[in-house]
Design brief:
The chain is α+β, with helices and mostly antiparallel strands. It has a single domain, classed as Chorismate synthase AroC (Chorismate synthase, AroC fold), CATH 3.60.150. The protein contains 8 helices and 18 strands. The chain has a 5-stranded antiparallel β-sheet, with helices on one face. Helix 1 crosses helix 8.
């Protein structure tokens, strides 16, 4: 099992949902960078659990403890390590999951992969809890990108069947920053109540809902990336699929491109004050694995939370027979809202790493 990702900007995550702490080690951060700890805390708070009825009742402060690599708030150029303590755990809620496998969860696959030695409490190493470590890494990467005029932002493009508007061709850094100030970031705020209602309806029914998150990166110049294995899409997707519950990634118009003719799928080009731009951005700012100077736009699909309170047919791996599982504990009825800063974080990490390749 490898818990390290990256080429020039390497991150290593560690811990489990109910271990003493989770954390991350960052390697490749240059020396002399003054870290804005308030900005890091703000990103951590966006992902933190227990903030309202849209998330799990589990409350965690998610305050990162930077234990090395930073002196007097300035990076030293050595690896940065941060701990995020797990304080509010109820491990007894997961005792039955040592034998009853949750449908739609990693329980059975991990049982076979690790011979039953995996930690099932809160999902263990497969828990969304570890995305707090990604958000910390992304918060650092955001500050490194900001020095180069690059901004990352995202919105909920759909939730529980309720759709938001979509990014257009022109996306400003200011508009992306404004999305980060919203608990439910949307381009069309009139959809917010309907999305809340969809989550509350699922919660009341002991169920869950999923959705999609559309992310944009502005300020990246043409020419970043490479063909094939280090394409912009490959690098971003490799991190996106490391986020629990992400089941699909699409760039630009994604699957809709498959039903178009080439003349419609192509983005017409023109000069704008000496800069080459395109009239549309159906390809999400990436052609042949390399950026073309337009905003990078991609979308991820996040499946409904697997841990639901409805009785579910499953198997008892100790008795080796069919069984019925009725869960207890604290689980999110929807993780899409809390996933937004995570998707932004992986975009920031991926783009900063690509800039150094």
């Amino acid at each position: 099992m490898s818990a390290t990702w990256g080429s020039k900007f390497r991150i290593t995550v560690f811990g489990e949902s109910h271990s003493a702490a989770i954390g991350v080690v960052l390697d490749g951060v240059p020396a002399g960078v003054k870290l804005d700890t308030d900005a890091i805390a703000a990103q951590m708070a966006r992902r933190a659990p227990g903030t309202d009825s849209l998330s799990t009742p589990r409350k965690e402060a998610d305050i990162p403890e930077i234990v090395c690599g930073v002196l007097d708030g300035v990076t030293e150029g050595t690896p940065i390590a941060a701990f995020i303590r797990n304080a509010n755990t109820k491990s007894s809620d997961y005792e039955q999951l040592k034998r009853l496998m949750r449908p739609g969860h990693s329980d059975y696959g991990y049982f076979r992969r690790y011979g039953g030695f995996n930690d099932v409490r809160g999902g263990g190493a497969s828990s969304g809890r570890l995305t707090a470590a990604l958000v910390f890494a992304g918060a650092v990467a955001r500050q490194l990108l900001a020095e180069r005029g690059i901004t990352v932002g995202a919105h909920i493009s759909s939730l529980g069947g309720v759709e938001d508007a979509r990014f257009g061709t022109e996306i400003s850094a200011e508009s992306l920053a404004a999305l980060g100030e919203e608990r439910i970031p949307l381009l069309d705020g009139s959809r917010r109540d309907a999305m809340r209602a969809a989550v509350e309806e699922a919660r009341a029914d002991g169920d869950s809902v999923g959705g999609t998150v559309q992310c944009a990166v502005v300020g990246v110049k043409a020419g970043m990336g490479a063909p094939f294995f280090e394409s912009v899409e490959s690098v971003i997707s490799s991190l996106a699929f490391s986020v629990p519950a992400v089941k699909a990634v699409a760039f630009g118009d994604g699957f809709a491109l498959a039903s178009m003719r080439g003349s419609g799928a192509n983005d017409p080009m023109y000069y704008d004050g000496g800069e080459v731009r395109t009239r549309t951005n159906r390809n999400g700012g990436v052609i042949g694995g390399v950026t073309n100077g337009m905003p990078i736009v991609f979308e991820v699909a996040i499946k409904p939370t697997a841990s639901v309170f409805k009785p579910q047919n499953t198997v008892d791996i100790k008795e080796k027979k069919d069984a019925v599982l009725t869960l207890k504990g604290r689980h999110d009825p929807c993780i899409v809202v809390r996933a937004v800063p995570v998707i932004e974080a992986i975009a920031a990490i991926a783009v900063y790493d690509l800039l150094g390749r």
